[in-house]
Amino acid sequence: MPTLDLNLLVPLDALLTEGSVVAAARRLQLSPSAMSRTLARLREVTGDPLLVRAGRGLVPTPRALALRERVRQVVNDAESVLRPAMKLDLQALSRTFTLRTSEGFVENFGPALIARVARDAPGVQLRFLSKTNKDSTPLRDGTVDLETGVTGKAMGPEIRTLGLFRDRHIGVVRKGHALSKGKVTPARYAAGQHVLVSRRDLDHGLVDEALETLGLKRQVLATVGGFSPAIALARASDMIATVPEKHTYTLCEGMFRFALPMTLPDFTVSLFWHPRLEADPPHRWLRTLVREVCGETLASKENSVQ
After folding, report:
1. pTM, whole model, 2 decimals?
2. What are the φ and ψ backbone dihedral angles of 199, each rounded to 5 degrees?
3. Residue 205: burial class (beta carbons within 10 Å; 0-12, 13-18, 19+)
4. Is the model's pLDDT at 272 over the cut of 60?
5. How many other C-beta atoms can be found within 10 angstroms of the C-beta atom of residue 271?
6. Which of 195, 208, 205 is nearest to 234 (CA)?
7. Residue 304's pLDDT band (boundaries 50, 70, 90)?
8. Could you tell me the residue ranges of all domains in the chain?
9. What is the DSSP letter of 276?
10. How far is CA 124 from the centre of its chain?
């Protein structure tokens, strides 16, 4: 078996990232002719053209697209191994981290997280973006540093995951609502008027499936794209909102919360990041901090669900 030339990994990463011989050569401080010779060598080794002419530019082949993330990770891992270990100085750290989360996460955990960051690393800023889907593209392209949510099929297989806490769905209604008095049965719950939370324009979910097994069907008066507007509608009307308990704890303050009268599976709220940031000391510090803040915040809240 011929010896592999691992020196080809760095120029391969540059070519796949830049999609241009000239740009890759500039990035590695090589001449375009030297990079062209390297591309020829890579084509010979991989048995694939990798980049092919399309008009005046180059486009990646399917094999190149399949290799791009894997090669980037290998190069990142190698760089982290060879990079001198540096002690993280939080007081001197100046950086902005972008977190993609739901509105409930920001309201529940944002204040404590921001306070801890301001105390430990005053030069760090947190930027929160709304999460409208489970597409992991923002993590891949670097526009997002961290993301929270529940693992879904749209999540890329390379994305790293850290569990934050277990959660369950509960019902919430305004104080004085009929369901705040007496036992909440499946029939009473189904007979109420509901607001549905759906980010994918679906009109049928786990709640409906659970009710169907009991021979029941609920009436949905409104559909919204997030927990915050669902809770706001329930607070101002006789509608029932079904939401995650811990994720929306602060949003539901002053309302009557109740355990659902049918069985729905619990779920894990997790933290997601791209593997290129796995060994980054500031990023590793922030991941640990988010987990600590979630645990401390939840431990400090009393469970008010009846």
Report:
1. 0.68
2. -95, -5
3. middle
4. yes
5. 20
6. 195
7. very low
8. 6-82, 95-167+268-300, 169-265
9. G
10. 20
Residue with tokens 């009109």: 203
Asked whether 252 and 232 are in contact (CB, 8 A), the reply is no
Per the listing, tokens 């375009």 go with 32
Q: Given 3-state DSSP classes, what are the helix, strand and coil percentages for the chain, each rounded to the nearest 5?
A: 40, 20, 35
Q: Buried (b) or exposed (e) across 20-49, using 16+ Cβ within 10 A?
A: bbebbbebbebeeeebeebbeebeeeeebe
Query: Are 191 and 161 in contact, with CB atoms under 8 Å apart?
Result: no
Strands in 256-259's sheet, in edge-to-edge order, are 219-224, 193-197, 240-244, 169-173, 256-259
Is the torsion defined by CA of 269, 275, 281, 283 positive or negative?
Answer: negative
Cβ atoms of residues 8 and 38 within 8 Å: yes
Rg for the chain, CA atoms, rounded: 25
CATH architecture of 95-167+268-300: 3-Layer(aba) Sandwich (3.40)
Domain 169-265: which CATH number of 1.10.760.10, 1.50.10.20, 3.40.190.10, 3.40.50.10310? 3.40.190.10
Measured CA to CA in angstroms, residue 217 lies from 211, 223, 240, 263 at distances of 6, 16, 14, 15
- Secondary structure class of 11 (helix, strand, coil): helix
Tell me the C-alpha distance between 211 and 197, whole Å.
16
Read off the DSSP letter of residue 45.
H
170-206: pLDDT as tens digits: 999 999 999 999 999 999 999 999 999 987 766 778 8
Q: Which residues pair with 9 in a beta bridge?
A: none
pLDDT in tens, 105-135: 898 999 999 999 999 999 999 999 988 777 8
